[in-house]
Amino acid sequence: MTLNTYNKEDKILLAVDCIIFGFDQEELKILLIKRNFEPEQGKWSLIGGFLKKEEILDEAATRVLQHLTGLNEIYMEQLHTFSKVDRDPADRTLSVAYYALIDLSQPDKNTLLKESAKWFTLKDAPKLIFDHNLMVERAMARLRRKALSKPIGFELLPEKFTMRTLQKLYEAILDNKLDKRNFISKFNSLDILIKLKEKDTSSSKKGAYLFQFDAEKYKRKVEEGFSFKL
Amino acid sequence: MTLNTYNKEDKILLAVDCIIFGFDQEELKILLIKRNFEPEQGKWSLIGGFLKKEEILDEAATRVLQHLTGLNEIYMEQLHTFSKVDRDPADRTLSVAYYALIDLSQPDKNTLLKESAKWFTLKDAPKLIFDHNLMVERAMARLRRKALSKPIGFELLPEKFTMRTLQKLYEAILDNKLDKRNFISKFNSLDILIKLKEKDTSSSKKGAYLFQFDAEKYKRKVEEGFSFKL
DNA sequence: GCAAAAGTGTTTTACCTACACCCATGC
DNA sequence: GCATGGGTGTAGGTAAAACACTTTTGC
C-alpha cells in the first residue's frame, strides 16, 4: 500500500501507557506494575506497551490492560501524548496516555493476572519511571475536571450502590468533603439514578437504599448537551 | 543510545496537524492549505508535517506552522492523537492534532508566506483530506468548552481591544448572541481586564474604551484555581 | 437505652437573566 | 439635528450553600 511518498520521514516507536484508577468504596487507587525488562527493570511503572502497526490506539490500550491484568471491557479515554525526547532512555519513544476508572468491589476486577501488578492508594504510590508521575498527575486533573460536570464514576462503582458510596467516590476524586444533603439533592435533581427497594446493610444497622445508574436516561440527556456543576 | 531493548517493536510515522483559528473582529476563521504533494495533491488540508526524531511534538507543531505561514510565537495546545489505521492512504501514519488561536487584525499575522495557504470562514471551509474535518470539529468543541470556563481568546485579540470586540469573539466561538450588559458585567467581575484611558474610534463616532488583558492578575488567579461560567 | 449510620427541609445568599434608555460624536 | 454605536442599572428567579435534628436497628 505504501506509495513511497513519505520515505524520507522518521519513524518512531509509539507506546501506550494506562493510568488505571480504581475505587474500593473507601479510597481512590491506582494500578501499577513492577517492570520486568530493561531499562528501569524492577521499578514501578504504569502498565504500558507498544502500538502495533495494524492497531489503533484505543485497541492498543485495551490490549495492554487486558494482557497485563486480565481486565477487559473497561472504558478508557485518551488523555495526552507525551513526547519529551529523552523520556525513555532506551530509545526515542512517544507515549499516548490513556486513563480508566474501574470498580474494585467486584471481586473479578480485584484479582490481577500478574503477580507484579498492584493497587496503590494515591498517597502511597511510589515514584514511577520516566514521565509516568506526570501522566498520573495529568490524569488526576482530568478526572477531577470531568467529575465536576459529568456523572463520571459510574464505571468506578458496582451496579448497585448507596448514596453514601457515591458521595465518598466524589470526595475521593475531588479531595474534599461534601455536604450530604446537598449532594443527595443535587443527584436527585439530575434525574439519572433509579432508587431501588433493596437496602444495603453491610455498613449500618438501619440499612441504606441502593441506587442504580439509569444509563438510558443519561444517554438521552447527553445527546441534549447534558452537563452539571457540582 | 539505543539499547536494542525494543527491537521487535513497530516504528510508525507521526504527523502533526494544526487547526489554526483566527479572528478578524467579525468572524472566526480557519487556516487551510492546498496540498502540493501526493496523496490528495491539490485538495485542501490542515497545515501539517512530520515529527522528526529529535523533536518534541510542541516544537514540531510550531515548526510546521512557522514554515508554512511565517507565523511564530503562536500559543498552541495539543488536542488529540488520531490513529485510524487507514486514515492516510499512503502509509500508516498517526497524527497528533494541535490547535491555536490567532489575532488576524495584526497585519503581519494576516499575510501568509505561501500562496497555497488561505483563511476560510468556518461556514465556507471546503471538505478536507483524511480525517481533518473530524479534527476541526473536535478542536471547535474544545475551543467552545474552554471559552465557557476560561478567558480564552486573548490570543485571538490584539493587545488592546474593545468590549464589543471581545463579545463578538465569544459570540463567534459559542455561535450565539450574548447580552451586552451581562457580558460586560461578567468580565468586569472577573477582574482580569485593565480599562485604558484610550478609545478606539474606528467603528463609532463616540469611540469605545480599549481594554487590556491583565496577564499578571490572571496568572495569580489561575494558580488559585480560577475558572468561571459564562 | 445507646451507639452508628441513614434520611430528610428550610433559609440565606449569590449569580444568572431579562430588559430599555440616555450619551457622545461626526456628519 | 439625526444617525450610529457606546455605555449603564435593576428587579426577579433559580440554583448553590449552609445548616441540625429525627429515625432505625442491632447490640
From TrEMBL, chains A, B:
<dbReference type="InterPro" id="IPR000086">
    <property type="entry name" value="NUDIX_hydrolase_dom"/>
</dbReference>
<dbReference type="InterPro" id="IPR036388">
    <property type="entry name" value="WH-like_DNA-bd_sf"/>
</dbReference>
<dbReference type="Pfam" id="PF21906">
    <property type="entry name" value="WHD_NrtR"/>
</dbReference>
<dbReference type="InterPro" id="IPR036390">
    <property type="entry name" value="WH_DNA-bd_sf"/>
</dbReference>
<dbReference type="InterPro" id="IPR015797">
    <property type="entry name" value="NUDIX_hydrolase-like_dom_sf"/>
</dbReference>
<dbReference type="Pfam" id="PF00293">
    <property type="entry name" value="NUDIX"/>
</dbReference>
<protein>
    <submittedName>
        <fullName>NUDIX domain-containing protein</fullName>
    </submittedName>
</protein>
<dbReference type="InterPro" id="IPR054105">
    <property type="entry name" value="WHD_NrtR"/>
</dbReference>
<feature type="domain" description="Nudix hydrolase">
    <location>
        <begin position="11"/>
        <end position="148"/>
    </location>
</feature>
